[in-house]
Amino acid sequence: MVPMPQILVLVVCKVLFLGPPDDNALKTGWRDTEWDTRQGVMHCQRHEIQLYDRAVDQGALPQPFNQESCRRTAMTLGPQYDVDNRDRPWRFWRSACPTPIFADKDSNEIVGWHIPECGSFGGTVICELDSVI
Questions:
Q1: Cα(86)–Cα(91) distance, integer angstroms
Q2: Which residue has the higher pLDDT, 73 or 128?
Q3: What would the pLDDT profile of 37-71 be if each residue is shown by its tens digit?
Q4: pTM > 0.85: yes or no
Q5: What single string gives the DSSP state of each residue in 104-115?
Q6: How far is Cα 132 from Cα 24, in angstroms, rounded to an integer?
Q7: What is the pLDDT of residues 111-130, one digit of tens each?
Q8: How many CB atoms lie within 10 A of CB 33?
Q9: Pseudo-torsion of CA 1, 50, 96, 109, nearest 10°?
Q10: 3-state secondary structure of 59
Q11: Which SS3 state, helix, strand or coil, does residue 25 take?
Q12: Strands 42-50 and 125-132
């Protein structure tokens, strides 16, 4: 069995700022925004994030990386992306974890993993950029 790669995909999409920040924006970070849906599609970027467990450097045993830990990590890194990029017109929209590739349709033998592409999220999204963080 091939172990799951420690990779997470974040899809961030462009937003339009609707007016200037309010008086509390410096403290709260809140901005009035809406998704940029020019030409009937969302304009997004797909970021592959290579994950690493820093606790291993401090002597901890490596923890298995699986679908549950990937989704939990995504729900931390996605909102953190918004905090780190609050002045940029990009917001976290979706995340994706690697999906297993099986030897055949009747087998549970995992022979590889597929890293989701931007097109995996449907026809209403176009990715302007694929990058690795």
A1: 8
A2: 73
A3: 988 889 999 999 999 888 888 989 988 889 999 99
A4: no
A5: STT---EEEEEP
A6: 34
A7: 999 998 876 666 688 887 65
A8: 14
A9: 0
A10: coil
A11: helix
A12: parallel
